[in-house]
Design brief:
Layout: E1 5-9, H1 10-23, E2 28-32, H2 40-45, E3 48-51, H3 60-69, E4 75-78, H4 86-93, E5 97-99, H5 106-121, H6 124-132, E6 148-152, H7 156-167, E7 171-176, E8 186-189, H8 193-197, E9 202-205, H9 219-224, E10 229-233, H10 242-251, E11 254-259, H11 265-270, E12 279-281
Parallel strand pairs: 1-2, 1-3, 3-4, 4-5, 6-7, 6-9, 7-8, 9-10, 10-11, 11-12
Helix pairs in contact: 5-7
Length: 287
């Protein structure tokens, strides 16, 4: 039987090739550099591929073009959790198995969420802006302890957010499809979303984008929230109806929003909310 042939970035093979060979004796590699062509003979040999984060963003289109052209490709491992991009459906349709890095970045992403919550509750953005203007004025600052945090989605990220928030004295209520009874905080099923929205001070979305979760939070759901509720979305941007979010930020119904972009970069630059003081777009890589 022919040895497996891994398609990966040149830096991955340079840094980790020895460990990969130790784990899979006999494995061979076809390496990829952004902007360089891969020979047809090498493409024909590829049986597995690893799309690593060092290829993001410029190298991934070329990398996946090679994957789509590889007739013997059986398995693609990606560094990220989300695989809703059309290229993954194309890979599945050609018979490749896809595995993800779901959960591998849960801790740093949860740290980012808690950073956002602490900074917003303590009004760090406002304090920084006033400092830059050389202004001092009395201001109201809320305490973190005792606030009610809703966490929608209890995968690795949501679970870690709930754990960390509880250490700050926050009252955490989570939603998930199936409650096991072993959750570390009070947990409800997803059909109680409306009830949750009415009792939280801050809301974190940490669930995948599916047909069932697209625009999970829209104008109707935002209207159920307390005025000034802070929303942090570390799932896909499509979980939130962006025009409804923009309107809620402008009216004050939402006190702040941190989320992934929904549309392309050019469209995002034209979106009025980009310059809104209460709006933050998370960087593409949080972990």
């Amino acid at each position: 039987m022919a040895p497996p042939v891994l398609f990966c970035s040149s830096s991955i093979w340079s840094d980790h090739g020895e460990a990969i060979r130790a784990a899979a004796p006999g494995i061979e590699a076809v390496t990829f550099r952004t902007g360089q062509r891969v020979a047809d003979d090498d493409i024909a040999r590829i049986t597995a591929a690893f799309a690593s984060d060092d290829l993001y963003p410029a190298g991934l289109p070329g990398f996946f073009r090679v994957c789509l052209d590889a007739p013997s490709l059986e398995w693609v491992q990606v560094f990220n959790a989300g695989i809703d991009h059309p290229v993954f459906r194309m890979l599945l349709n050609k018979g490749a198995r896809i595995t993800t890095g779901s959960g591998t970045s849960a801790i740093p992403i949860a740290h980012h969420v808690v950073m956002c919550l602490l900074a917003l509750i303590r009004d760090l953005p406002g304090a920084t802006a006033r400092q830059l203007r050389h202004e001092w004025q009395p201001r109201q600052v809320h305490d973190v302890e005792g606030r009610t945090l809703g966490v929608v989605g209890m995968g690795p990220i949501g679970t870690e957010v709930a754990r960390l928030a509880s250490h700050f004295g926050m009252n955490v209520i989570a939603l998930r499809r199936t409650v096991t009874g072993f959750e570390l905080c009070e947990t409800w099923t997803m059909d109680r979303l409306d009830e949750l929205l009415g009792v939280v001070d801050d809301l974190v979305l940490a669930l995948p984008l599916t047909a069932d979760t697209k625009h999970l939070i829209g104008a109707r759901e935002i209207a159920l929230m307390r005025p000034g509720t802070r929303l942090v979305n570390v799932g896909r941007g499509g979980l939130v109806d962006e025009p409804a979010m923009v309107a809620a930020l402008q009216s004050g119904q939402l006190g702040w929003s941190g989320a992934r972009r929904v549309r392309g970069r050019a469209a995002a630059r034209r979106e009025p909310v980009v310059g809104h003081a209460q709006r933050h777009r998370h960087p593409p890589q949080l972990g």
